[in-house]
Amino acid sequence: MGDHDDLRKFITDLAVVHGRVVLSSGREADWYVDLRRVTLHHEAAPLVGRVMRELTADWAYDAVGGLTLGADPIAMSMLHAAAGTDRPLDAFVVRKAGKAHGLQRRIEGPDVTGRRVLAVEDTSTTGQSVLTAVEALREAGAEVAGVAVIVDRGAGDAVRAAGLPYRAAYTLADLGLVA
Question: By its UniProt entry, which SUPFAM superfamilies does this protein fall under (predicted)?
Fold first, then answer.
């Protein structure tokens, strides 16, 4: 098996939780994909970095991140996967709101002004979280190359409607789930 198949197995074994839940979008579902069980796992996290880099290999960007908390471990996995390659990456964190103290930055990490960046998310149903990150990145002067998620729950249309390329490593069908 390759990285993509190995990561899918981690997702189906560790992250898919069955039971009634309310998603961040406000929608209800009979199952939840808790990707932090994978993105923060010692064996799975390196796979996340490699799979997401491969998914977006033809896009030009030099920094990766998104809205905290779902995007943070993905960005770090991609940063580490890129270390020592001919295409290193910086990572950044987009806060849900600007800080009221210190430097009062909404985007933490290396400056994204004037840079091509990739916005990531673990899973997305409506696209609201990742589009919030995109808005903050654009306000900071970054050029967003596209949006990539590990699992798409249906956000693709909303992200593409916002004028952004969109890719997902896995669909619900890939995981044996129905919407």
Answer: PRTase-like
